[in-house]
Amino acid sequence: MRILVTGGAGFIGSNFIRYVFDKNMSCEIVNLDKLSYAGNLENLKDIEKNENYTFMKGDICDHKTVEKAIKGCDYVVNFAAESHVDRSIHGADEFIMSNVLGTNVLLEKARMNGVSKFIQISTDEVYGSIENGSFTEDSVLAPNSPYSASKAAAEHMCRAYFVTFGLPVVITRSSNNFGPYQYPEKFVALSITNLIEGKKIPLYGDGKNVRDWLYVEDNCDGIYFVLNKGAAGEVYNIAGGYEMMNIDMVHDIVRAAGGDRSMIEYVKDRLGHDRRYSLDDSKLRDMGWKPNHTFKEALDKTVKWYEDHRDWWMKIKHKDTYKKYYTKQYKGKD
Ligand code: NAD
Ligand code: DAU
């Protein structure tokens, strides 16, 4: 079994590579990643000497690069994407390139090379916001941010390749992941690392937006389950089953990290901020999948990981590019 993992140097992709090698040591993995600001080879330090692992630096938008990377691969798991909603509000060009054009290049090369399964890693954000109830896989897509619109567009290309060419594409839509190796711009990683540094946690708007939280290892388990058991042309929601308001999430983080609620600071809201995400993942659960971690144990493990890996996130947070992003985010200029 040879898998092309794209975006494997990012948060979920690197956790997925580690997860797959833990499950199946004889599996071969090619990791194609362009090493954007979010890509970090330190996420895979313990894997890089594995003889079944190959890293290729390259862009999924580049036909020749993808052609080379995909040779001999039975499966493709496409994590590569621009993934941060706030950045997509500052400018969406890169999102269209990597998320839409990049997916298209991968689909075309997968078709030409006869891959057995193409897993597209998508998101609950493609459904948009829901006040009551939960989205099923049949719900209408109504993305609200440039990021989620680009992910929905990528999904439409996947569907087109399945219907037009019979490419065995399977889509996963997961909720908000948290866990080790998450770039510290995302809410949980930012909150934990800010607390450790004695900095305030910026909470958008009234703090009452609701997200469902999924431990990254459980998402990897769900993706691996879909890789083995998912049917071509199908979509699978993957949820943690822990829906909560951001303010409650921060209180839990403060509890787990032993901090103080005075460290929470209300800041200006995100434009177009989706109020609530909620997934019905009974389709996957009826097939026998469920998350292995409770929310509390996953959050405690995550906090401990950031406490034990200060070097990893300090290096990122002290880069000029990281500081420059926050100047733009809060002062609206480069
Ligand atoms: P991330 O930003 O941490 O990692 C993305 C990786 O993709 C990086 O290593 C980056 O270098 C690479 N990449 C970006 N553009 C590329 C390109 N053109 N060619 C090659 N590599 C490229 O993202 P993440 O949080 O790990 O998310 C991974 C995937 O999961 C994304 O597709 C995202 O939309 C989806 N997703 C994320 C979450 C979440 O909570 N983080 C939830 C649901 C779905
Ligand atoms: O739902 C899945 C999605 O989850 C993925 O598709 C995206 O790739 C991933 O980035 C994530 O998107 P969100 O926008 O939900 O995640 P983020 O961590 O940016 O924000 C989570 C919530 O916390 C959201 O309601 C906004 C809020 N927030 C975020 C940041 C960065 C704050 O209140 N303060 C912050 O500083």
Task: Tag the structure with descriptive keywords.
globular, seven-stranded parallel β-sheet, binds nicotinamide-adenine-dinucleotide, 12 strands, Rossmann fold, 12 helices, 334 residues, binds 2'deoxy-thymidine-5'-diphospho-alpha-D-glucose, alpha/beta, UDP-galactose 4-epimerase, domain 1
Summarize the structure.
The protein has 334 residues and is of the alpha/beta class. The protein contains 12 helices and 12 strands.
What secondary-structure arrangement, pairings included, does this model have?
Elements: E1 2-6, H1 11-23, E2 28-33, E3 53-57, H2 63-70, E4 75-78, H3 85-90, H4 93-112, E5 117-123, H5 146-165, E6 169-174, E7 176-178, H6 187-197, E8 201-204, E9 210-215, H7 216-229, E10 235-238, E11 242-245, H8 246-257, E12 264-267, H9 282-286, H10 295-308, H11 310-317, H12 320-331
Walk me through what this model shows.
- This protein is of the alpha/beta class and 334 residues long.
- It has two domains: 2-179 and 214-238, NAD(P)-binding Rossmann-like Domain (Rossmann fold); 187-209 and 243-273 and 294-325, UDP-galactose 4-epimerase, domain 1.
- It contains twelve helices and twelve strands.
- The chain has helices at 11-23, 63-70, 85-90, 93-112, 146-165, 187-197, 216-229, 246-257, 282-286, 295-308, 310-317, 320-331; strands at residues 2-6, 28-33, 53-57, 75-78, 117-123, 169-174, 176-178, 201-204, 210-215, 235-238, 242-245, 264-267.
- The strands form three sheets. The protein has a seven-stranded parallel β-sheet with strand order 3-2-1-4-5-6-10, with helices on both faces. The protein has a three-stranded mixed β-sheet with strand order 7-9-11. It has a two-stranded parallel ribbon with strand order 8-12.
- Strand 1, helix 1 and strand 2 form a beta-alpha-beta unit.
- Helix 2 (63-70) crosses helix 4 (93-112).
- The longest helix has 20 residues, at 93-112.
- The mean pLDDT is 97.
